[in-house]
Known about the structure:
Layout: H1 7-21, E1 46-54, E2 57-65, E3 75-81, H2 88-95, H3 97-104, E4 107-111, E5 115-116, E6 122-123, H4 136-150, E7 153-163, H5 165-175, E8 183-187, E9 195-198, E10 201-204, E11 216-220, H6 242-252
Parallel strand pairs: 3-4, 3-7, 7-8, 8-11
Antiparallel strand pairs: 1-2, 2-4, 5-6, 9-10
Amino acid sequence: MQDSENKTKSLFKMLPALLFGAGFFMAALSATSAFANGCGQPQEAGRHDMALTSGDQARVYRAFIPSGYTGQAKVPVVFDFHGSDSSANEQLDRSGWERVAEREGFIAVAPQGVLPTPKGNFSWNVPGVTKGTADDELYIEDVIHAVAENFCVDESRFYATGYSGGGRMLSQYICDGHRDFAAAGFVVGLRAGYPIKQGETWVPDPATCKPAKPISLIAFAGLEDKINPIGGQGQPYWGYGADAALLRWADLDGCKPPLQVSKTG
């Protein structure tokens, strides 16, 4: 399940600027949280290697702390999920969230999948897609709790982005009823439940996507993507396409037609 390159990578580099330029992740900046875990202590600016135990297994994640962080005021967090055959560090290098975090004063966190790849990287154990035994949904929960315990953050302003395999992981995490994120953005990875076949066509399985609440989403897909085809009908792990996923999420979020679709590039 190698991730697509070229245009989809450039889309991901654009994602932080697009989301913040449109105010997508800034709409809730005036909100406050009832929790103050991790407050009171400053942290050194820069990227930090963080360790935790999840499901009796040693795991890691990366956290970028902006230079303006004091440990006194609660700040938002963007969780940045890497694609298949990648890593937390590679994702932070690729996505550009650190630069935006430094400018806007929030923390950027990159979790790391559990499945090792032949290239020495990692992929996610996505429910309904892969067959690993480790629980990456539990791990995501544990990373979120660790971030709240270690840093002065506002849990009402937790957001997430996912690239390809990371988008699939993030999608299923939200589908499975987790309420942690106020909004989410995707590049070639939005899903709306497991892929199942109806006749000769792949469609989202409605029984496997039951989000706990409506959630604001933004998603990008590449017309020339051969790995995760925008029209679907690719490899079984991909199944249905981006349009089918968007239409299903519009229904789950109670959005009223007509659906407006725009193309760039």
